[in-house]
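Q: Sequence in, structure out?
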Amino acid sequence: MPNVIQLKFKGERTAFYLNAQQFPFRVKDFAIVEAEKGEDMGMVNLIEIPPSMKVNGNEALKRVLRKANDADIIRYQSNKAVELRAREACRQKIVVHNLEMKLVDCEYQLDGGKITFYFTAEKRVDFRELVKDLAGEYRTRIELRQIGVRDEAKRLGGYGVCGRKLCCSSWISEFAPITTQAAKEQNLPLNPNKLAGVCGRLKCCLMYERDFYNQAIAQFPELAKEITTEKGTGTITKIDIFHDTLTVKYPNSETEVLMLALVKDKIYKCENDCGHGHGNMEELKKPRA
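A: Exactly. Output:
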């Protein structure tokens, strides 16, 4: 979309803005934009918006006001120090008001016109007295915004068991529903401790890796199916899509690891030579849904 850019704010929060004056931004430049009754600063994240990306629907976009200057950067850095103090003060007030909520983060608007506190809670929280208390101390508009545990992980960031930065805080823009069916399709053990991410919910990678696993697994015969090899008829007990191997267990409890390509090659040769299938040839050739 022409003259529209995407900015990223603290906690991986993103929003689209109208660059009506066509400032020559580059990715990672800082820009001053319109905010609710004030100004805010964010970092340019996207200059060319893909057609597939939704841009606020019918809602009017706020405008980019100017490029950030040195004074804006200094104020932005100063706000970070104030945010730390405000977050700790809010935590103490939550205890005083005996509220069942967990404070996650605090975000200052650049001009100080608003402070947003992000929190998680298992049920509805009446925080009206807390807001009055905070507004009286900071003399500015206060917003308390409840978020989910996945949004909490996205805001705070961290690293997964894979050793890489959390997907939610590095590149995922929207959370998709995740079910245990995705784990079943990838032949993963249904162990909640292994399937859950740092947020305590099912890992996001279960969904975006799902298509790859389905395509890879479709090349293999199904688990628990019988197959005939040179050693006789056995049952497939394990498949390894990363090494293209399958494990066959025979009636005498002996196991054998076979390369998928060799198994397929022998079956196809048998069909070509003798004119009929051998073992579970049709199962091997048939793509699975």
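DSSP finds ten helices and twelve strands in the chain.
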